[in-house]
């Protein structure tokens, strides 16, 4: 694992920053796919041809023909499930309350703002930030001071996302100028998925949205429609950015459903008017998508029969291909989503997908 010493002076150059602790993050090993450890400078493709061959071939040409002097075997497409190198800086700021994961290098890097579920913290989503940063996306794990009793409303929290977007894009010195201020992605789990979609319905700056089992309902003790506006179907037609939705139906019913039927990922998909993909995990539960599905608050949701490690690995891989396709315009990623890449994962029987509106 590499460590970027430049981050030690990061806070001093940032607007509104009170303190900064640069750390190395020990990733959750159980969430890593069983693959060979990537090289430090991994940027999404391999150094060989994927078949055990070197980069060069025997250039001897006794016949004197026009064959090339080096191996012209095309390299395989990158694996969106594989990790690269990454660096993390944890900031305490008057402007943003988030853990910010920075890719190695000078950028510019697109921004991903990841919002947590109700009563969950950024700690539960670090494996996502690690993965996306390794692919060249600055990833901020947002913290909200939500509460069972009181605290900010959904409308106030989506405005906080807007303020964070302003902060990341308003000053070129923020994050040492590495942020691509024209590439913004909103992503979130549960309540955070709703907040991401809600903000996108107001904000044309959003280039892509990812909802991980998003829940459209108000908190358990309710609230007004002004404070807790519904997104599906009321505001879905206002989102022009492409949307990727993950979800499950294990927790759609019951006495206290964590992702109620009619207000879950399916409701968002059905009412979407722009390009959208739905990924339905057949045996997962609402907390399969967090790094510690056994956290105290997670126990409120009845468990599924999936392997959460596999579920999260699939979410990270599919999201990475989605971002590479939609944000970076990578043809290989578009082909991966439409062809053998996604099909090979789907054939495992853990999820099914559908798309509409030209996705």
Briefly, what is this?
Helix content is 21%, strand content 19%. The protein is α/β, with parallel strands linked by helices and 359 residues long.
Please, could you describe this protein's structure?
With 359 residues, this protein is an alpha/beta fold. The protein has helices spanning 126-134, 154-170, 191-200, 265-271, 308-326, 331-338, 340-346, and strands at residues 17-23, 87-93, 98-102, 109-115, 138-142, 179-189, 206-212, 243-248, 276-281, 351-356. Helix 1 (126-134) links the parallel strand 4 and strand 5. The longest helix has 19 residues, at 308-326. The chain starts with 16 loop residues before the first strand and ends with a strand.
The rounded distance between the terminal residues' Cα atoms is 36 Å
Reported for the largest beta sheet, the result is:
10 strands, mixed
Unreliable stretches covering 5 or more consecutive residues: 1-64
Report the mean per-residue pLDDT as an integer: 81
CATH superfamily: Alpha/Beta hydrolase fold, catalytic domain
Q: Please write the CATH class name.
A: Alpha Beta
In total, the number of strands is 10
* Approximate helicity band: 10-25%
How many H/I helical runs? 7
Name the structural class.
alpha/beta
Give, in spatial order, the strands making up the sheet with the most strands: 1-2-3-5-4-6-7-8-9-10
Report Rg.
21 Å
- Beta percentage is 15-25%
The H/E string reads EEEEHEHEHEEHEHHHE
Which labels suit this protein?
359 residues, alpha/beta, Rossmann fold, ten-stranded mixed beta sheet, 7 helices, globular, disordered N terminus
